[in-house]
Specification:
Elements: E1 2-3, E2 6-19, E3 23-30, E4 34-40, E5 59-66, E6 71-80, H1 89-105, H2 113-126, H3 133-147, E7 166-170, E8 175-178, E9 189-190, H4 193-204, H5 217-234, H6 240-253
Helix pairs in contact: 1-2, 1-3, 1-6, 2-3, 3-5, 4-5
Length: 254
């Protein structure tokens, strides 16, 4: 609802940066207007009503004064702070990576209902001890590609259109390769049929059904390899939180 120059937006804080002595500049992913930035005046003061709601992961309703040159946060009603994520260092950095990826893909003044829902459900999944963070990451990475129209073709051969015998994938071609075409594509990678089914399920499923399954370690490793190579080839950006995740997982496996 809008009144004067104030608008009410449903969203989540993606990042928060200090400005001056007491202010913060926050970036929001909102359902109604996609990504927007706004100044949270006095949010760094000890008794500020805006302090808690201006932190990353804060999800709720933000009333924003839309100025000609800048936007200012008028009030915040937080529904979920995702406090439990901060209690686990691994989940924390996975969460920050999800925020970074949402920031990378979201655009200003373009509604982001599905991306916001995906981010929210993915952060909830990080707090579910039954689902490995590595699987949550794979699902999130693949689904966010779907919403941005950059995902690999997983239902038919990218080379000839055949829908059966999909046993390999080509990163350079951007999708599955059937048995008949394997010999003509130089960089095909053989993958388990369960990995194919998993990718098909993620691509086609509603957000609420994404985090309702588990996979074997072999399938998870294949998903990680595929998405790592896919992102390396098609996304020209490095993410700080992902570097920390890689380091943490390397130390854990050692």
């Amino acid at each position: 609802m809008a009144f004067d120059n104030n608008i009410e937006l449903n969203g989540m804080v993606l990042s928060s940066k200090p400005v001056g002595e007491y202010d913060l500049r926050i970036t929001l992913l909102t359902k109604e207007k996609g990504k927007i930035s706004a100044f949270s005046r006095g949010a760094r003061k000890p008794k500020s009503s805006l302090m808690a709601g201006s932190r990353p992961f804060s999800y709720g309703k933000f009333t924003i004064f839309m100025g000609r040159n800048s936007n200012v946060v008028s009030s915040i009603e937080i529904e979920n702070y995702f406090e439990n994520i901060s209690k686990d260092i691994s989940a924390t950095y996975y969460g920050f990576y999800f925020l970074e990826l949402a920031d990378y893909y979201s655009k200003e003044n373009i509604e982001a209902k599905e991306m916001l829902q995906l981010l929210y459900q993915s952060l909830r999944a990080l707090m579910n001890e039954k689902i490995p963070n590595r699987l949550v990451r794979c699902i999130y990475e693949l689904k966010i590609l779907v919403y941005n129209g950059e995902y690999p073709e997983v239902f038919s051969c990218i080379n000839c259109g055949e829908e059966n015998e999909l046993k390999s994938i080509s990163i350079s071609k951007g999708g599955m390769i059937c048995t008949e075409c394997e010999g003509s594509i130089p960089d095909t990678m053989k993958i388990d049929i369960s990995t194919v089914y998993t990718m098909q399920y993620v691509v086609s499923s509603d957000i609420k059904k994404l985090y309702t399954f588990l996979v074997s370690e072999n399938v998870l490793c294949e998903l990680e390899k595929i998405l790592r190579q896919y992102y390396s080839r098609y996304i020209d950006k490095s993410f700080k939180s992902l570097e920390i995740i890689t380091m943490l997982e390397y130390n854990t496996r050692d």
